Amino acid sequence: MKSREQEYKEIFIAEALEYFDALNRHISILEKEPESDETLAEIFRLLHNLKANSKAIGYLQISDVSHKLETAFSLIRNKELSFSDEVVKVLFDGVDLLGELIHNVDNPNYGEPDPLLLRNLDIIVENLSDSTIELAKVQRYNTSKNLALSELIYIQIRKLDHMMNLVGELMIDRDRILSISRELNSDELKSVSSHLYRITEELQYSVMDARLVNIGSLFNKFPRIVRDVAAAEGKQVNLVLEGHNIQIDRNILQIMADSLLHLVRNAITHGLEKPEERQAAGKDATGQLRLAAQSDRENVLLRLIDDGRGIDLNVVRRTAVEKQLVSADTARTMAEHELLSLLFEPGFSTAKEVTEFSGRGVGLDVVKNAIDSIGGRISVSSVKGSGTTFSMQLPTSIAVKGALLFEVDSIYFAIPLIHTEQVVSLDKDELHEVGGVLIADLKGETVTVVYLNELLNAPEQEMRLGDKTRLNGQVQNIIIVSYNNRKLGLIVDKLYRQQDIVVKPLSKPLEQIDIYGGVTLLGTGKVCLVLDVPAITRYFTQRRQI
């Protein structure tokens, strides 16, 4: 068991990191609104609390730096020190030093903080005229480092009490079922089983609820990042954050952190124009960047929107041909959404130069792979000259997924609902053989259709996916799935229902089969394989069949 001292330390670190993020955010706001007494008061409060807490637990270096920063802001609040660019740099460096000290409280090899940072703080605190300050040059904040969230989740006591009550009920019902099963009283067994199911389900959602965190814990890190990247690029950027209180599983948020960081950097370095370029195009000199979260049924929708130069489809088309992703003939006939989906292919990049923050060979495929790993979806839309929007649909939980159940060749399968567009029934005559594959017209959209029985069971050299004679029956049940702006129809034998499933990884050697994303156990005791829609879609994309 952890000692009480260790628990206090973990709580302090988690809280201190939240203060660190909040300080970065509020100083960024103060830089734009130097007359905001409310922002200044909040910064002062955060520093005062951090000073007191760190001193109480014995972290005197953190307490000392907090005290110096508190003094500096007190001078600013009393109009004794102007909030100049020179002073802002020192204050940001001081906050960076706080973050460094907080992250290294348990690191015996850390040593002492950078004396130049402390010297600059001392100069400001001693209230010298900022017009005569000669500040030491220090290393700026490194925005290329990975983002990390605290390992500690605050859980309200009432949530834990509720979970304990549910577990107690579950244990009582478990014992009752064991006793009743010996007596073989089926009516009572049915009643208890029904109650057990309800309690287990409620317990499941209670545990999931305990893992939820506000998405603002990630959003709050971006004002400082946007400020530093924009300054390095010589651009003016106004960041708008929306949906701080939307909740999502903490693990999903951690996986998304680096992906969102990559997208934000790209938006500033490649999407938004320099002030003079924007003004020449009739735009405001300051670029607008909006990061918004909202609930979307059982998912969370994240959108990153910029009003920059947009994506030039002709450049995308030319780059795709140069990198041999598609042939020149294919590229000429590709629709806009198909061209944009190529942005997520490995190695694809239209960047002409390497900058400090992007263009190092790490492309959008890394972002897509991260989102795939949690069962999410990403898409992009753009208007040349007006801007670009990245939309990410994320599950609120990794453990439990909504899925559609169906049967192929007397075997149960499931497809995550997040990749399911619709279910249709088509007559065999409505399917057409073109270029060795089946296609169907759905409301004017041509969609490739695959007979899953053929895909799952036939050896690759014997597969004839465009052969209608292999289909059973006249009417075909088709599940339309979507991945990376591409749609694919999957012909199945029988459709069942939607239900929440808990996906477990496959054991060896089945885990090496790409088209399976895991396995679940149905209430009947039958094993159900979960299909991996991204893997199936990639299978056909690589063969230029869709």
UniProtKB/TrEMBL annotation:
Q: Which InterPro entries match?
A: Bact_Chemotaxis_CheA (IPR051315), CheA-like_dim (IPR004105), CheA-like_homodim_sf (IPR037006), CheW-like_dom_sf (IPR036061), CheW-lke_dom (IPR002545), HATPase_C_sf (IPR036890), HATPase_dom (IPR003594), His_kinase_dom (IPR005467)
This entry's Enzyme Commission designation comes to: 2.7.13.3
Q: Which Pfam families match?
A: CheW, H-kinase_dim, HATPase_c, Hpt
Q: Name one GO biological process term.
A: chemotaxis
Q: What PROSITE patterns has UniProt attached to this entry?
A: CHEW (PS50851), HIS_KIN (PS50109), HPT (PS50894)
Q: Which residues form the HPt domain?
A: 1-105
MF-aspect GO terms: ATP binding; phosphorelay sensor kinase activity
Protein's job: Involved in the transmission of sensory signals from the chemoreceptors to the flagellar motors. CheA is autophosphorylated; it can transfer its phosphate group to either CheB or CheY.
Protein name, per record: Chemotaxis protein CheA
Q: Say which species the protein is native to.
A: Pontibacter chinhatensis
